[in-house]
Amino acid sequence: MSSILLESSLPDRPVRRGKVRDVYDFGDRLLFVATDRISAFDYILPSGIPRKGELLTRISQFWFDQLSIENHFLTDDLTTLGLSSETAAPLAGRSIVVRKTQVVPVECVVRGYLAGSGWAEYQAQQTVCGISLPSGLVESDQLPEPIFTPATKAEQGHDENITFEQMCAVEGVGEDLAAQLKSLSLQIYSEGARYAAERGIIIADTKFEFGLVDGQIILIDEVLTPDSSRFWPQDRYRPGGTQESFDKQYVRNWLLQSGWDRNSPPPELPSEVVAGTTDKYIEAFERLTGQTF
User: Fold this and answer.
1) What is the pTM for the complete model shown?
2) How much is the pLDDT for 159?
3) What ranges make up the beta strands (E) of the chain?
């Protein structure tokens, strides 16, 4: 779905556009619309991934029902916003109505395996976000226990890994809230990872976002999707290198070998990479939920 279509659908509503989601303000509620945009290396790519928005929305809805933590989901019935059927039609399936919250300005990342920027840092100094790890680990190794590695949030440009101590110093966070978010993030990751493992998927790492409603912490945004997590097939897991995945690592890998310098506008994705990415997201959805997409 193009962002142009979304703009024409709700022209009079305040909107905040992220890398993937468009968020429309309806006063006491928000409309979250997952587009088919895909980002990599902090760029929105010129090629969309067909039906990706629907898949992300349905996976998040599945986890909102599955997990034990309170979340911001209200309904996927867009008529509750007073939208006409004509306006709602192109948004249906990829949109949810959610509670407004005071958003915590930090991404809560949990890593159970050594990959991505964590692997790069480990190679340089045997740490991940300042956390010391045992020597002798190889790429994609399972960590002795999951670790909490927060990051700054960025709608555009680069997110930045920070230490827990730096998180405590972020305006609007503080030590008490940071400690609660760390504990919750590790709890949710462990809960989700156990469930996924029963269905043949390793959740190598993920990121959560949280908001506050009357002082209560609730889970917001997306949760445990192929956009916010590394999903690896358990039966093909081999530590010592990069892994096959059900997530957008497939796109990252193509970009890395394409010759793109990562400092200029990214190239169009080949049709086979686009189709392959859709297939991987569908497989992740079907394995996790037991439903046919």
Assistant:
1) 0.91
2) 75
3) 15-17, 21-25, 29-34, 39-40, 43-44, 73-75, 95-99, 102-103, 106-113, 127-128, 131-132, 142-148, 151-152, 201-213, 216-220, 229-233
